[in-house]
């Protein structure tokens, strides 16, 4: 009899270990189950994930202690993300964290019941995730990293004045980029500048798209685009060799070779997201938790890139910039 019980116990423990979101290491009653779906792995999204976990720890939820995290890398693939989201739902996660716009869209399409907290979604309304930033309405809330194209182009005017044509390098499959590109066109129209677009569908197309632009434009701009962020090495190689200033939209993209940006601090965003997840785990309804936008912004510049293309930063920029990529 004792033997049967032991076998049963071992079986139950083994099952709970293989249950993904349902795994709790044997502290069934105390551990909360958290699924994290990250669109893909690039430096900024990795920073966000690590900071979310720190923010959760600050709020008393410690991975492997009273919380079990099931982390899934979406590999920038809708099919993979859909499957991951379905697994989270089937395993009964208490909350699902979605990092970046397409990941949040994939998770929301699988559940309108389980609370979802998204991180770094540029335009949550446009992406169809929430009714409004103030009153999300459904089972979803989170943080936004919205920055306007106009602010970055104003910085571009300060660093490399007099450009007439702007190349727009972005992914046509990311809703987070679409709304920012609309803003870029409005800016260009108002200033009498020309925009040449080059849209990609995956990172393997970035080199060719960059080359196409380098032959036609004075400067290039990329929004907070995941596909471009994951292919910065090839993009900057093209632009640096042809001495084209490449303005980007996130600190990590400057660290990875972009010339400059005016953007938010993703460590702060991640921690804020973690705090919101803790709120939801504490029983608050996401429907009534406003989406949080980051208000602290900084100028980030890459001195190596400037040297490579022969650009000198004006003193007024140097005075307020954080230098990355050294
Ligand atoms: N804002 C992006 C989105 O909505 C995600 C993102 C966060 C990102 N940090 C980034 C994209 C840095 C490119 C570079 O999907």
List the total number of helices.
13
Oligomer: single chain
Strand order in the sheet with the most strands: 2-1-3-4-5-11
Q: Helical amount among residues, as a percent range?
A: 40-55%
Low-confidence stretches: 10-18, 23-27
> Gap between N and C termini, in Å?
67 Å
Largest sheet: 6 strands, parallel
Mean of residue pLDDT?
Answer: 93
Strand content of the residues, in percent? 15-25%
Q: Can you tell me the overall shape?
A: elongated
Bound molecules: tryptophan
Class by alpha and beta content: alpha/beta
Count of extended strands: 13
H-E order: HEHEHEHEEHEHEHEHHEHEHEEHHE
Radius of gyration: 22 Å
Question: Can you put this structure into words, describing what you see?
Answer:
This protein has 326 residues and is of the alpha/beta class. Helix content is 42%, strand content 20%. It is built from 13 helices and 13 strands. It has helices spanning 2-17, 43-58, 78-90, 101-108, 149-159, 175-191, 206-214, 226-229, 232-241, 251-255, 266-281, 303-309, 315-320; strands at residues 32-38, 67-73, 95-99, 116-119, 140-144, 165-171, 194-200, 219-221, 246-247, 260-264, 292-293, 297-302, 321-324. It has a six-stranded parallel β-sheet, with helices on both faces. Helix 2 (43-58) crosses helix 11 and helix 7 runs parallel beside helix 9. The radius of gyration is 22 Å and the shape is elongated. Mean pLDDT is 93; it is low at 10-18 and 23-27. Bound molecules: tryptophan.
